[in-house]
C-alpha cells in the first residue's frame, strides 16, 4: 500500500490543474482498493455546498451538476462530523440522500472520509460497492484516511491555483482569494504581483500560452544544442578517468536529447501553443512519472537522469530571462524564497510589498523589509506562486495575510487602512521630543530594535531614547565570511555615534535556530532547542572575543555601549561570558584605548531563566526580556511555522504571569529590567508591561509613536487596574479583547489594526 500511496501522491503532485488531480485520485484509489465507485466531493467556499467534482463508477454527466448543502446527505454528515463513516447498507441510513443522475442506486456499501487541511474541511472522498459485495474493512478505511490526509495539501494548493486564476469550483468568477502566513514586516500594501523564479526549478515554471511558436521552438532547439555540447565536453574531459560502462552514461543522456526522443515531444507541445519552459515541464514530469511507477529499480533511477536533463535544459532557456522583468509602479515582489539581491533589482520607489513562500520574521529579508518600511508576509505554505504574476495583490503585514484579485469592497477597506496609517504617523510627529510619561508622571524609556543604519534614521525621526536591541548578526548575514574586527568596529561605531550619549545595547552574535550564516551552516534536527545564541559563541571564543573587542574599541570617547548576552539558560554561561568580556576589556585598555567598562546584561528568553532572575541579576547590570522567544518556548510553538502560528499568543496567561514574575524579581534585587519584542510595540501590550513595572520598552521604530501616544494619555493607576483585571482571565483571546476594549473606551480605537476576521467579513459581504 505504501508504494501505491507514494506513486499516487507523485502523480497528483504533477497534475496540471485541480480537475486532473481529482481524476487521478478517483481512478487510482478505485483501482488500488478494488472498489466499484470512487468519488470526490469538494466544499465550495462561495456557496458552502459540496459539489461532485470527479468520479469513477458513477455517471460522469453528474460531475459538476450534483451538489449537497453543507450538512445534507451522508457526504454532509462525514464533513460536519469530520470523521469517517462506514456503512454496509447506506440507503437505510436516515441521512441517505439519493440522486438519480448519479446512478448510485446500484451501490449499497458506503465509506466516506473527510479531506481536511489546516482544520478546514475541503471535501469528502467516497468509495461505494454493490449490495452483494463485501463491507469495507478497517484496513481499507485506514488506507482511505491515509490517502485523504496525504492529498489534502495538494488539493488545497490546486484549488487555490484555480481560484487565483479567477474561477471558483462552480466555474464562476472568484475574488478575495486569501492565504495566511507569518507577518514579516508591518503595514498594508496594494500592488501588482511580480514573481521572481529561482533558476532551473521545473516545479515553479508557470503554465503560459504562446503565440510566437517559431520563436519558442528556436529557443528550445538552442537550449538542446547547448546542453548537448555541455555533455559532450564533460564526457571528453573525463574520458581518460572513466571506465567504459561509466562513459556510457553520457551516451544515455545524448540519446535522450535526440530529435525522436524527449525534445521531439517538447516541440510537439510547443506547436500546441505552450511556451517552451511550460512544454519542457510537462514532458519531463510525464517521463518522471512513467519511470517512477516501474517495478524495475534500475529504470526507476532513470527518473533522476530525466530530472537532471530537464533542469539543464531549463537553465539554458532561462538565461537572461530575469533581466527582462518589468516592474510596475506599485510592485509586490513574490518568490519561493526572496533574497536581498531580488529587492535590489526593483527600481527605487516602486517596491511596495513582499511575499515569500519560505522564510520567517527573523530572516534577513524580513529584517531588511522592516528597515525599509515595506509590508511583508513570509511562510505562505500553500500558495501557488506562479499564479500571482501580474495579479493585483493586497499584502497585510500586520496579520500575515495576502489577498489575490480583491473585490472593490476589500480594496477600499485596505486602502482606508493605508490612508489611516499615513495620517496617524503624520499626526504623531509632534510627540517626537516629548517624554514618554503617564498622566501621573510615571516615566518609561522607549527604545528601538535595530540592525541596519536605515533603522537608525527612522528611529531618530520617531524620538527613540536609545537602542534596546542592536542585532549584531546583521553585519554577519550580509557577508560571505565572518567580518573582520575592523569591519565590525565600523558597523558598531555608526550605531553608537548616531545615538550618543543615549545607551546602545548590543546583543552578542545570536545565530542558530532560524538564523543561519551561509558560511557557517548549522544543521540540526531541532534547531530552536539546539546550538544557538551564547552556546555557539562560547564554543567559539575566537568569534566572541573578536566581536567584544570590536564593540569596546568602537565605544571609545562615547561610552554609551551596553552588551547583552542572548539565550542564557545557566549561571555558568554568564560567568564564562563575563570572564571573557573582562579579559578583552583589560587587553584593549593596555593597547591604549580610553574606554569605560560597559554595562553587561542578559536576555531572559528561556523558561529556565525566569526562575533564576535573582541569581542572574546578582551577576549583571540589567536584564532584558526577549518576549518573542520566551513566548514560543513557554507555549512550545514555533511562531514562524504557519501550521501552528495561530497557537502563538503574546497575551497567553502563562506568558503574562511569567512577565510579571520577571519584573518583580528583578526589582526585588534592585536591577532594571526592559523588554524587546513584539509585545512591547503593541499599544495594549505596552500598557500592560508599563503596569508590570518594566523600566524600558524596545520595539520597531514604526511602533514607537503609537506606544508613546497611548502611555502619555493614561495614568499608571489605570493601567495597573487593567493588568489586575486581565490576570484573572484564562484565555489569550479574551485577554486581547479585554485590552482592545479598554483602548477603544479610552479613545484609541484608531491604533488597533483590524484583524483577519474583519477583513474576511468584508470579503464575505462582497461575495454575497
From TrEMBL:
Residues 17-165 form the GAF domain. The keyword Cytoplasm applies. Belongs to the PEP-utilizing enzyme family. Keywords: Cytoplasm, Kinase, Magnesium, Metal-binding, Phosphotransferase system, Pyruvate, Sugar transport, Transferase, Transport. It comes from Marinobacter subterrani. Its EC number is 2.7.3.9. SUPFAM superfamilies: Enzyme I of the PEP:sugar phosphotransferase system HPr-binding (sub)domain (SSF47831), GAF domain-like (SSF55781), Phosphoenolpyruvate/pyruvate domain (SSF51621), Phosphohistidine domain (SSF52009). InterPro entries: GAF, GAF-like_dom_sf, PEP-util_enz_mobile_dom, PEP-utilizing_PTS_enzyme, PEP_util_C, PEP_util_CS, Phosphohistidine_dom_sf, PTS_EI-like. This is phosphoenolpyruvate--protein phosphotransferase. Its main location: cytoplasm. GO terms for cellular component: cytoplasm. Its cofactor is Mg(2+). GO terms for molecular function: kinase activity; metal ion binding; phosphoenolpyruvate-protein phosphotransferase activity. GO terms for biological process: phosphoenolpyruvate-dependent sugar phosphotransferase system. It is an enzyme of class 2 (transferase). Pfam families: GAF (PF01590), PEP-utilisers_N (PF05524), PEP-utilizers (PF00391), PEP-utilizers_C (PF02896). It catalyses: L-histidyl-[protein] + phosphoenolpyruvate = N(pros)-phospho-L-histidyl-[protein] + pyruvate.
Amino acid at each position: 500500500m505504501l508504494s501505491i500511496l507514494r506513486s499516487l501522491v507523485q502523480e497528483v503532485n504533477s497534475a496540471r490543474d485541480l480537475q486532473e488531480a481529482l481524476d487521478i485520485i478517483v481512478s487510482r484509489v478505485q483501482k488500488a482498493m478494488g472498489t466499484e465507485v470512487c468519488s470526490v466531493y469538494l466544499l465550495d467556499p462561495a456557496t458552502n455546498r459540496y459539489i461532485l467534482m470527479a468520479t469513477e463508477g458513477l455517471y460522469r454527466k453528474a460531475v459538476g451538476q450534483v451538489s449537497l448543502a453543507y450538512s445534507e446527505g451522508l457526504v454532509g454528515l462525514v464533513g460536519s462530523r469530520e470523521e469517517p463513516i462506514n456503512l454496509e447498507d447506506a440507503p437505510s441510513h436516515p441521512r441517505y440522500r439519493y440522486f438519480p443522475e448519479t446512478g448510485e442506486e446500484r451501490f449499497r456499501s458506503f465509506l466516506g472520509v473527510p479531506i481536511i487541511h489546516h482544520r478546514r474541511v475541503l471535501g469528502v472522498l467516497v468509495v461505494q460497492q454493490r449490495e452483494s459485495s463485501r463491507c469495507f474493512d478497517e484496513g481499507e478505511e485506514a488506507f482511505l484516511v491515509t490517502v485523504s490526509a496525504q492529498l489534502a495539501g495538494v488539493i488545497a494548493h490546486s484549488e487555490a491555483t484555480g481560484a487565483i486564476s479567477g474561477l471558483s469550483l462552480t466555474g464562476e468568477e472568484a475574488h478575495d482569494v486569501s492565504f495566511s502566513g507569518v507577518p514579516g514586516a508591518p503595514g498594508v500594501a496594494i500592488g501588482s504581483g511580480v514573481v521572481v523564479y529561482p533558476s532551473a526549478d521545473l516545479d515553479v515554471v508557470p503554465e503560459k500560452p504562446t503565440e510566437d511558436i517559431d520563436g519558442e521552438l528556436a529557443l528550445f532547439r538552442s537550449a538542446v544544442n547547448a546542453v548537448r555540447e555541455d555533455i559532450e565536453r564533460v564526457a571528453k574531459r573525463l574520458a581518460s578517468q572513466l571506465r567504459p560502462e561509466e562513459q556510457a552514461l553520457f551516451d544515455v543522456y545524448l540519446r535522450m536529447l535526440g530529435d525522436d526522443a524527449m525534445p521531439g515531444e517538447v516541440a510537439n507541445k510547443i506547436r500546441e501553443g505552450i511556451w517552451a519552459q511550460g512544454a519542457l515541464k510537462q514532458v519531463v514530469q510525464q517521463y518522471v512519472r512513467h519511470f517512477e511507477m516501474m517495478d524495475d529499480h534500475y529504470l526507476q533511477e532513470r527518473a533522476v537522469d530525466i530530472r537532471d536533463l530537464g533542469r539543464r535544459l531549463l537553465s539554458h532557456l532561462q538565461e537572461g530571462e530575469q533581466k527582462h522583468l518589468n516592474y510596475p509602479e506599485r510592485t509586490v515582489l513574490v518568490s519561493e524564497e526572496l533574497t536581498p539581491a531580488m529587492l535590489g533589482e526593483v527600481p527605487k520607489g516602486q517596491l511596495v510589498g513582499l511575499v515569500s513562500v519560505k522564510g520567517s520574521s527573523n530572516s534577513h529579508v524580513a529584517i531588511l523589509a522592516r528597515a525599509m518600511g515595506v509590508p511583508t508576509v513570509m511562510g505562505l505554505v500553500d500558495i501557488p506562486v506562479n499564479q500571482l504574476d501580474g495579479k493585483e495583490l493586497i499584502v497585510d503585514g500586520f496579520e500575515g495575510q495576502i489577498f489575490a484579485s480583491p473585490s472593490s469592497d476589500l480594496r477600499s477597506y485596505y486602502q482606508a487602512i493605508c490612508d489611516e496609517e499615513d495620517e496617524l504617523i503624520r499626526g504623531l510627529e509632534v510627540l517626537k521630543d516629548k517624554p514618554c510619561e503617564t498622566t501621573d508622571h510615571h516615566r518609561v524609556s522607549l527604545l528601538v530594535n535595530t540592525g541596519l543604519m536605515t533603522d537608525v534614521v527612522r528611529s531618530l525621526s520617531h524620538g527613540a531614547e536609545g537602542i534596546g536591541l542592536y542585532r549584531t548578526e546583521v553585519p554577519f548575514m550580509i557577508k560571505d565570511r565572518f567580518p573582520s574586527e575592523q569591519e565590525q568596529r565600523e558597523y558598531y561605531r555608526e550605531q553608537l555615534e548616531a545615538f550618543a550619549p543615549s545607551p546602545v545595547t548590543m546583543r552578542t552574535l545570536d545565530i542558530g535556530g532560524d538564523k543561519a550564516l551561509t558560511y557557517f551552516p548549522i544543521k540540526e534536527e531541532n534547531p530552536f532547542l539546539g546550538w544557538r545564541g551564547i552556546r555557539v559563541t562560547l564554543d567559539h571564543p575566537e568569534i566572541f572575543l573578536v566581536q567584544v573587542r570590536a564593540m569596546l574599541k568602537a565605544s571609545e570617547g562615547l561610552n554609551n555601549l551596553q552588551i547583552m548576552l542572548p539565550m542564557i539558560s545557566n549561571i555558568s554561561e554568564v560567568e564564562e561570558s563575563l570572564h571573557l568580556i573582562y579579559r578583552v576589556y583589560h587587553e584593549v585598555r593596555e593597547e591604549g584605548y580610553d574606554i569605560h567598562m560597559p554595562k553587561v546584561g542578559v536576555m531572559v528568553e528561556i523558561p529556565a531563566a525566569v526562575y533564576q532572575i535573582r541569581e542572574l541579576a546578582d551577576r549583571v547590570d540589567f536584564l532584558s526580556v526577549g518576549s518573542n522567544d520566551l513566548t514560543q518556548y513557554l507555549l512550545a510553538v514555533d511562531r514562524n511555522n504557519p501550521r501552528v502560528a495561530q497557537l502563538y499568543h503574546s497575551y497567553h496567561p502563562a506568558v503574562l504571569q511569567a512577565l510579571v514574575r520577571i519584573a518583580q524579581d528583578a526589582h526585588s534585587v534592585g536591577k532594571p529590567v526592559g523588554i524587546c519584542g513584539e509585545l512591547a510595540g503593541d499599544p495594549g501590550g505596552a500598557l500592560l508591561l508599563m503596569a508590570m513595572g518594566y523600566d524600558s520598552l524596545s520595539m520597531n521604530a514604526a511602533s514607537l509613536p503609537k506606544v508613546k501616544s497611548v502611555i502619555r494619555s493614561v495614568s499608571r493607576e489605570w493601567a495597573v487596574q487593567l493588568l489586575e483585571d486581565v490576570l484573572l482571565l484564562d484565555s489569550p483571546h479574551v485577554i486581547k479583547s479585554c485590552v482592545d476594549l479598554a483602548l477603544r473606551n479610552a479613545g484609541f480605537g484608531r491604533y488597533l489594526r483590524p484583524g483577519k476576521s474583519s477583513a474576511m467579513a468584508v470579503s464575505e459581504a462582497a461575495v454575497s
